[in-house]
Design a protein that fits this description.
The protein is mainly alpha-helical and about 70 residues long. The protein is about 90% helix and about 0% strand. Keywords: Membrane, Transmembrane, Transmembrane helix.
């Protein structure tokens, strides 16, 4: 920011408030994006966790069929 803009902001409270609100809006937008990214990562981890359990169950069933024959 240039010298003239700094003086204008210093002398005009409306400009100062507007500038502060802009910074708050920008930071809240960054927080919102961060939360969206975090939510997406959690969903991916949940999907991987669930699919791992399902795959593990299938592998156990296949192993049991392979070693013991059909399940009675």
């Amino acid at each position: 920011m240039g010298l003239v803009e700094e003086q204008a902001v210093r002398h005009c409270p409306l400009l100062r408030d507007y500038q502060r609100q802009g910074a708050v809006l920008y930071s809240s937008r960054i927080k919102q994006k961060f939360m969206e990214i975090r939510e997406a990562i959690c969903l991916i981890l949940l999907y991987l966790h669930t699919s791992t359990y399902i795959l593990h169950g299938h592998l156990l069933l296949l192993r049991r069929k392979w070693y013991l024959g059909p399940i009675p």
